[in-house]
Amino acid sequence: MTPLLMLIVILILLVLGVPIAFTLGLTAVMFIVLQSDFSLTFMTQQLYLGANSFPLLAIPLFILAGSIMNYSGISKRLINLALLIVGIFKGGLAYVNVVASVFFGAITGTAVGASAAVGQIVIPAMVDKGYRRGFSAATTSAGSSLGILLPPSVPMILYASVSGISVSALFMTGIPIGLTIAAGFMVVAYFLSAKQKGEIIEKSVKVENVGIELLKNIPALLVPVIILGSILTGVATPTESAAIAVFVGIVAALIYREMSMKDFFVAIEDSVRTTAFVMFIVACAGLLGFAFAGLGVGHQMMEPLLQFANDPIAVMLITSLILFLGGLVFDGTVMVLVIVPLFLPLADAVSVDPLQFAMVVLIVWSIGQQTPPVASGLYITTALAKATMWETSKYNVWYILVLLIVLFFMIYFPDLCSIFRIYSLINVLMGLRQVGTHILFYLKETIE
Known about the structure:
There is one protein chain. By secondary structure, the protein is mainly α. The protein has helices at 2-15, 20-35, 40-49, 58-71, 74-86, 92-108, 111-129, 133-144, 146-149, 154-163, 167-193, 207-216, 218-232, 238-256, 261-294, 297-302, 312-327, 332-349, 354-368, 376-385, 389-412, 419-447. It is globular, with a radius of gyration of 22 Å. It starts with a helix and ends with a helix.
């Protein structure tokens, strides 16, 4: 009965317009006070502990790196590069939208950041070229979901903090999945672009111009390379690599000379606001998770599902359905921090590969970014395109279909994805790292 009552309270508070963080915190405090003897001081400590995690320290740094990139002129340059690569084809701007989202997903680490950065530039250009506003908004919103699956993904860092999986393993696993989805988005954009009236085919470009643009964008393109390279070689932890990303962003800003000191402080202010928003949700979600554990809510919710404890596919399908339904009401951050920990023991009991389960959860999170009423990515792009939700959703449903197809492939045919090969590559690289460490230690001892 307690889980149902808690859900009712949460829904009532959301309907009343209470922000999600306060909704989670108030619900947790209410039920802990009424049904337990914990003191308010203890609850305050739990609120602090919910956000007190070293891996989570990477989040504000990656957000700051993405914000600096947006204000330093890199956004415009990356989109110009995407235009040169795929803009020569019919429907070129739709492809540019997806490719630019791949670039920004690999820099900003958030879907919302990618949708805002790409949408502000590409959506007006698409509308001017004759693309429908709804199609422009849907393509941008779908592309922004790649920020969840491509490193340095903030959602992956959050998932790692609750599951104990290596952040670097999640990053490397997300690359083939994210690029596969991006390819599917390109196919959808091709067919939907064919129905756009007034479209202008982009003019062809010379190969040397692509080379010039690549050289101009080396500072920006090096960010994901440096992040992944520093993590895999053992030079830095994910948190330290986030600090390196901020440094590279500042260097790029100095090279391009398009970011004033005022812009720099605005970038810091934006990143502080975004970080405060995310981390306050994390802290309150941690408090609600503590309430779930203390009141036995998790066991009550999982008990009906124990009958499927011998079927991994059934467990993943049920998890996906519950997370999808929850995503219609809650932000993905809440789902991962509160609901997912309840399913982790069950997934472990049926021997589901932890990385496979992680990708299933993150793909469902990506779908949640595109499905109202929450749909944070969709709201941003519809506002930028000045389109209605219906105009956008009738195009966006085809992009969601791509996510659903990849989701079912991940559940039923995990071996068809390169997830395990990438994970094996991680093990090989980690082994080489250990060998190198031993060699360096031996050389140091010999010299001394």
